[in-house]
User: Fold histidine kinase from Synechocystis salina LEGE 00031.
Amino acid sequence: MSNSPSVLTELLQSLPSLRAQTYFKSSLTALSHAMEDQVLAESTAGNPLIIAAFQRERFYRQEAHRYRRIADKSNQVYVLSAPETEFKHSSGIYETIAFTPEDSLAQEWHLVVIGDRYASCLICRERPTQDKWDSNRRFEGIWTFDRQVSRVAAELLLKRILVYRPELQAKIEEATQTWLQPSCTVPPRGIDDNPDPFVQRLITYLQAGQYKLIKANRNLQDKEERERLLNSITTAVRRSLDPEEIMQVAVEKLGQGLGICRCVIYRCSADDAVATISHEFLSSGVGSIKGYPWPLKDNPLFQQVVALKEAIAIDNIDRDPRLGEPGPSTGEVKTLVKSCAILSWMLVPIFYRERLLGMMEFHHCGPAPTEWENDALTLVEGVATQIGVALIQAESYANLQELNEQLAALDRTRSNLVAITGHELRTPLSTIQVCLESLATEPDMPQELRQVMLNTALEDAERMRKLVQDFLTLSQLESGRVEWNAEPISLEECVELSLSHIRAHNRGQEVPAIINQVNGETPMVEADGEWLVELLTKLLDNAIKFTPSNGKISIAVDRPNPSQLEVTITDTGRGIEPNRLETVFDRFYQEEGALRRSRGGTGIGLAICRQIVSGWGGAIWAASDGKNHGTQFHFTVPIVLPENPGPTVEEIVAKKRKAVAPRASSRGKRK
Assistant:
C-alpha cells in the first residue's frame, strides 16, 4: 500500500464539481468534534456509520475516549491509524485498522458520519509548508454535509479498510446495504440534512482561525521580541538559588521589557490576610509602594485569582464590577487604588502544583487606562511559571542542606546504635555464656558457687530484657501506636509507685538518698498512670546512675499556672554542660561516648521520657550549672480542673464544724 492513491484525490476524481479548500489543524479539530458531537447528542442514534482516519497513533490516543462513547451508539465504527506502539488490527468495542506508515493515509485526516438525520464528511490531506515563520499545520480538502459526497467518501474508505482487513467483508456489506445504496442518499421526508446552527458554528470558527493567522503574521516581530524576553528572564532566574534575587531579576526585566508603570512581586499564600511588597520596578514619575502592607483577605481581586487559579486583567479599574459593590473590603481596595494611582491592573499568580507561592502585579498609572494585550498576559504567565519552578528549586536547595544535616545526624545515630547495642548485648551474653558453660562442664561445683552463677546469668538476662524492652517502647512511642488512657490520678501515688520500683531494682546496692516532697495536698493530674510511673522511674533511675551513693536526690512539685503542675527531680551528681542540655534527650546520646563509658545504658531512656511527656502535650527540659553541679529535670503535666471552682456553703460549714470539734475535745481532756 506504499503507492496507494490519496483518498482526497479519488474523491475529487469521482466528483469533479468539488473544490478543495485550505484548513488549519485547529479548524479540523473543531469540525471533527462537532461531527462527533452530532452522534453523541442523538438519543436514538439508529446505528450510524462512522469512519475516522488518524494520521498517527498518537493523534488517535488523544481522541480514544470519545470513540469509546461513540461506540455505544453504533456497531459500525471504524478507526484507522498508523501504528507507533500498541495500535493494531482489532475488533473490540469498535473496529481498528492499522495501515502501514507508507500509506497515503499517513498524510491525511478523514472523518465520515452517516446517519438517519445527518450526513457529513471531512476528507483532507496535509500540505507541507515552507514558511519557517508559520508553524501552523495546514490541510487542503473537502468538508460538507452533502449526503451524496459523504456516501462516495465512505465507499472509498471502506475499500481501503477491506485491503487491510478482508475478514470484515460481511460487516462492511451490511454498512453498504444500510447507508451507501442509492436509495439511501435522500433522507426521509421531514428530515433536514442542513443543521443551520451547526453550519454557523463551523463557519464562525473558521473565520476566527483565518483572522488569527493574519494577525499572527502582523505581530510576528512583537512575539519574537517577547520570546527573547521570556528566554532572558528564564535564564536569569535559573542561574540563582536565592529567592530574593530571583524575584528582583524577574521584576526588573518584566518592567523594562513590557514598559509597565509599576511592576511588583511579593510572596504570599492563599490564606494570608496581608502581604508586604518586597520587590518593585518603577517607571519615571511613578510613586513607590515597596514595603507597603498589601491587603489580600479583603481584596476581591486577589481572592478571585486564588479561586480560579488564573490571572485577571482589568483594563479600566473604575468600571470593574467587582469593585463597584459597596462594602468594607471594596472600600479598602478603592482607597488603595487611589493612593497608588492605579488605572489598569493585572494580577498574575505564581503557582507550583496547586500551591500559591506569590503574586505578580502590573499597574498602569496614566494618563489614561490601557488595554492589556493577550500576548502580554501569556508572556507574564509563562514568566510566573518559570519563577515558581525557580523558587521551588531554591527552597529545595535550602531543604537539601537541612536534609544533609539530618542525614549526618542519622548516620551518627546509626553508629551510636551499633556501638551501644553491640556493647550492651555482647557483655551480658558473654557473662551468661560463661556461667552456663561452667554449670554444664563442672558437675562437682559447690552449691554456693552454682547459685552465684545462676544469679549472675539471671541478672544479665534481665539486663538484656530491659534493653530490648526500651527499644520496643521507644519504637512504639515514636510510631504513634500508643493509646493514651488519660484519667484523673494522684501524682503522690505515682511517685510512691515509682520509688518502690527503684528500691526493688536497686535492692542490696548503695544508692543516694531520695527525698520525696510530693504530698497529699498536690492536685490530681490528668495523665496515663502507667506511662507517668514509667516516666518518673526512668528519671529517678537516670539520677541514681550519675549521682554518688553519698549524694542526694529530691522530687518536688510546683504549680506555675492554674492548669499545670511542674515536677522537678534534682540530683547532686556530675551535672551536664549547658550546651548539651537539649542533646541529652536525643536517641542514643552518650555523654562519655559509646565506648568510653563508666556507666551502662543505651542512651534512650531520656528519649522515651520526652516521647511520654509529648503524649499528653507537656514539656520536659533539663537544667544544670555545669560539671559537678548537679542536674534538674523538669516536666509538666496537666491538672484535673474541677467542674465547680469553689466549695459550696454546706462544705464550708461542715469543714468549720470538723475543725471546732477536736478543739472542744482537747479542752475537756485538759480539765
